[in-house]
Automatic annotation (TrEMBL):
Pfam families: MatE (PF01554). It is found in: Cell inner membrane. GO terms for molecular function: antiporter activity; xenobiotic transmembrane transporter activity. It comes from the Bacteria. InterPro entries: MATE_fam, MATE_MdtK, MdtK-like. This is Multidrug-efflux transporter. The keyword Cell division does not apply. One of its GO terms (cellular component) is plasma membrane. Coiled coil: none annotated. It is a multi-pass membrane protein. Keywords: Antiport, Cell membrane, Ion transport, Membrane, Transmembrane, Transmembrane helix, Transport. One of its GO terms (biological process) is monoatomic ion transport.
Length: 467
């Protein structure tokens, strides 16, 4: 069916006019690039805003000292474990919304969102309360230094009270990205992060009559901002998605089953990945508190590099799922590789300042020259090596859009738990090679995962998955 292939050559933009194949191909490439950027840039903007806010928080807390920075680091990654259990709702809702649009079922476009919001409430509320109650035990397992543990516990308790809000916001994000309206998601997210920065700064330092809470104030400010973001998402989605069934159409039972089938493996993947990252920080804590403080800064700076690529990957989720909804496997396959190429170029450019000016960048977050020296080489390696991660960051999301969530989970977690963590413990606390060796191993294993996902994508086994 050559005419159908031509009609779907750009995924879902329709047939491209042109007098000949020679002139049509360059136009097609420009059109596909434009489609990726129009969908992906707002998501990238949102991801960058989130990363920048995390960096601002780290800078505000970092100047309180290495104890505060290490405590917030422990609390942050313990919180990551909690919210990971609801993060899978975002990719599940996005894949289903994009698939419904590809099938032309616009009157049912928002029913996956309804299901996602209900699941976020049912899981997020009890989970947040349970983690708040168990905070002393959880943080006590992760931090051996009593001062670090005290800071981490206070910060963690505020953050986990917003687990429900995180689940709601990820569901809303999935809807806006899956329906090709990621610009709205970006605007709301920017407002939420600006509110977060202002509230956190005022609560840390006790401005405008607010209590001076120190590092704990950063956790409370983030909690308030997340719930305010949920409220704004609710109002804006009601305005534009009522015709698609938002809060008006009850999701059928099969919608819940399919959403759970997509979300549960991804949430479990995120939880085990977050647990692995938290265990990685525990291993680094055995090396020293200074190493733990520097590692927290390095992770947040790394997110500045990888979150834009994850944003492009989310665009790939929509593009791949939409093309599969139209029955065009070739277009879905091509979208994945094109987004990988764009992400690799972006990571290379973003990494340049990290390997040219590592000491100056670290100086924005810590005052101690010894900490800056400790982080200089690992940060330089981050700038040089993160381009290897493009395949992982994009193709993970593309495979989720195709429904291959269980396979993604098995490969990512197998590499993390069977390779990275045992080797990290061996070369760190056991052999005493320190932070540089640990960080080098972390970058190397991410490059290995990229190669595995690239092979999976090329073989197209994901094209046979039914949603």
């Amino acid at each position: 069916m050559p005419e159908r292939a031509a009609g779907h050559a750009c995924g879902f933009c329709g047939k491209l006019p042109g007098p000949s194949p020679e002139t049509r191909l360059p136009m097609l490439e420009r059109q596909r690039l434009r489609q990726i950027l129009v969908l992906g840039l707002p998501i990238i903007g949102g991801m960058l805003s989130q990363s920048l806010i995390n960096l601002v928080d780290a800078a505000m807390v970092g100047h309180l000292g290495e104890i505060a920075l290490a405590g917030v680091g422990i609390g942050s990654y313990a919180n990551f474990m909690a919210i990971a259990l609801v993060m899978g709702l975002g990719s599940g809702v996005q894949a289903l919304v994009a698939r419904r649009r590809g099938e032309g079922r616009l009157d049912q476009e928002a029913t996956p969102l309804n299901a996602g919001l209900l699941l976020a409430l049912l899981v997020g509320l009890p989970l947040g309360l349970l983690c708040w109650w168990a905070a002393p035990w959880i943080i006590g397992l992760l931090a051996s230094d009593p001062e670090v543990a005290a800071v981490g516990e206070d910060y963690f308790q505020w953050r986990v009270l917003a687990v429900c809000a995180v689940g709601l916001n990820f569901s809303f994000r999935g809807f806006w990205n899956g329906s090709h309206r990621s610009g709205m998601y970006l605007r709301i997210l920017l407002g939420m992060h600006l509110c977060n920065a202002a509230l956190s700064y005022c609560l840390i330092h006790g401005l405008f009559g607010l209590p001076e809470m120190g590092a704990e104030g950063s956790g409370l400010g983030t909690c308030i901002a997340l719930y305010l973001g949920s409220l704004v998402y609710l109002v804006q989605t009601w305005r534009v998605a009522r015709q698609g069934g938002f809060l008006r159409r009850r999701p059928p039972a099969i919608e819940f089953r399919v959403l759970l089938r997509l979300a549960l493996p991804n949430s479990l993947h995120q939880f085990l990945f977050a647990t692995g990252i938290t265990l990685l920080f525990w291993i680094i804590a055995q090396v020293g508190t200074a190493e733990l403080a520097v590692a927290h800064v390095l992770i947040n700076l790394t997110l500045l590099l990888i979150l834009p690529a994850i944003g492009l990957g989310m665009a790939a989720t929509t593009l791949v799922s939409h093309s599969l909804g139209e029955g065009d496997v070739d277009a879905a396959h091509r979208w994945g590789w094109e987004v990988v190429r764009i992400a690799a170029l972006g990571l290379a450019l973003l990494g340049v300042p990290f390997w040219l000016f590592p000491a100056e960048i670290l100086g924005l977050f810590v005052n101690d020259p010894a900490l800056i020296e400790l982080g200089t080489l690992p940060l330089r390696l981050t700038g040089l090596g993160m381009v290897l991660d493009a395949g992982t960051l994009v193709l993970t999301q593309a495979l989720l859009g195709a429904g291959a969530s269980r396979t993604v989970m098995a490969i990512s977690l197998g590499n993390q738990w069977l390779v990275l963590l045992p080797l990290t413990y061996l070369i760190g606390p056991v052999l005493g090679y320190g932070l540089l060796a640990i960080w080098s191993l972390y970058i190397l294993q991410r490059g290995i995962i990229s190669a595995i996902f690239a092979l999976m994508w090329q073989r197209r086994g994901w094209a046979r998955i039914e949603l």
